[in-house]
Amino acid sequence: MSIVDDYQDIRDGVTALCANFPGEYWRKLDANSEYPDEFVAELTASGYLAALIPEEFGGSGLSVEAAGVIMEEISRSGGHPGACHAQLYTMGTVLRHGSPEQKARYLPDIANGTLRLQAFGVTEPAAGTDTTSMKTVARRDGDKYIVNGQKIWISRAEHSDLLLLLARTTAKDQVKRKTDGLSMFLVDMRKAVGNGLTIHPIDTMMNHHTTELFFDDLEVPASALIGEEGKGFRYVLDSMNVERTLIAFECIGDCKFFIERAKDYACERKVFDRAIGRNQGIQFPIARCYAEMRAAELMTHEAARLFDAGERCGAEANMAKMLAADASWNAANTCLQTHGGYGFAREFDIERKFRETRLYQVAPISTNLILSYIGEHVLGMPRSF
Ligand SMILES: Cc1cc2nc3c(=O)[nH]c(=O)nc-3n(C[C@H](O)[C@H](O)[C@H](O)COP(=O)(O)OP(=O)(O)OC[C@H]3O[C@@H](n4cnc5c(N)ncnc54)[C@H](O)[C@@H]3O)c2cc1C
To answer: Would you give the DSSP letter of residue 340?
Structure first.
């Protein structure tokens, strides 16, 4: 549909893999709220989930742009990369700020699939978007930390061995800047569950395997701390920028899925003895979706290239996520409308993808908060909160 990169081999490889997991596979999982174990196992075996892990640790050492293309092609083929995308974006923190010992200990096993790093724990029920007001605390006690608190919407926790956790190590009223005093930990959930960590699944409108986590005097070894204590907010931004960029790629994949389906149906479906796509009332909204997708796609590649070059990419990652999520939501709505009543039938996969792409107006950061970031940090307008 559009080529703006040099990753055709990856596109072809992922498309071929996804052909073994057609709409029927995802529909069945969706109906039963099941995790795509076989799909994730094949994606891992083929090396795609270790795309960002350096070659010296058994990965393929690819760029964020290449990882984004992998996510995009899963979405475009009709699958749901939300089942496994965290293994890629958590690398933003682990690779840049993890110690050589942590990398040597975990990365080879993550790369070969014996260890899963699929959970990223930031959001809390009371704090919501106001991350620095989080209440989960990690208190140093000799050679360990004791963690207490609660997280919400932590996806794939039941399908992950490790959790990248953000917690407060110094109270907010005792730090100069509210972003100080937060720390990142790589928690081994295999030891934690039943010993201070409880996981409760949350039933949601799409099959996203999200959960609530309760920490009750969970002991975490001090060696699980990533980087320096109190600097976790700075480290988490690397994962958040990669997360926003990769999700923008997923939304671009969704756009391509919806536009392709809408175009094909508009050309085939005859009403009043003519293809409905001959009517500009049907054709123009699809054409607009294409233009919106292309604009968002360019910004998404720009965000990835800046991250890969080690440059500041906060503005571009945020704008890419917002533009791509808006484009995919409009494309979803347009595709459903183009299909008339058939769009609501589950066998077309459109209503499922419609539900899946709707999430990205809210998570991992809502549109309002991106607009606020642009207003304040890019345009220099007054702070509103
Ligand atoms: C299915 C799902 C999966 C998720 N997975 C994860 C995960 O794996 N890990 C994780 O840490 N989090 C995860 N999240 C959480 C997600 O990142 C948050 O839901 C999101 O950041 C919004 O936070 P909130 O839900 O607390 O909304 P709130 O902060 O309560 O905001 C509610 C609404 O008010 C708006 N709002 C709030 N403040 C302002 C303001 N100052 N100005 C204008 N508007 C404002 C917001 O834009 C939003 O629309 C997930 C969420 C969902 C639904």
So the answer is: G
DSSP assignment string, 208-227: --EEEEEEEEEEEEGGGEES
Fold for 8-112, please state it: Butyryl-Coa Dehydrogenase, subunit A; domain 1 (1.10.540)
Q: What residues contact 334, with CB distance under 8 A and at least 6 apart?
A: 258, 262, 285, 286, 288, 289
Distance 367 CA to ligand 1 centre (A): 10
Q: Which CATH architecture has domain 117-231?
A: Beta Barrel (2.40)
Active-site entry in 243, 292, 316, 351: 243
- The amino acid sitting at 242 is V
Query: Residue 5 carries which DSSP code?
Result: S
Residue owning tokens 């950061």: 365
CATH topology of domain 234-378: Butyryl-CoA Dehydrogenase, subunit A; domain 3 (1.20.140)
Model pLDDT for residues 165-209, shown as the tens digit of each residue: 999 999 999 999 999 999 999 999 999 999 999 999 999 999 999
Across 23-40, average pLDDT: 98
Helix (H) / strand (E) containing 165 = strand 162-168
Q: Is 176 exposed, middle or buried (0-12, 13-18, 19+ CB in 10 A)?
A: exposed
- Residues β-bridged to residue 220: 145
Give the DSSP letter of residue 195.
Answer: T
243 is catalytic: yes
Average pLDDT over the chain, rounded to whole? 97
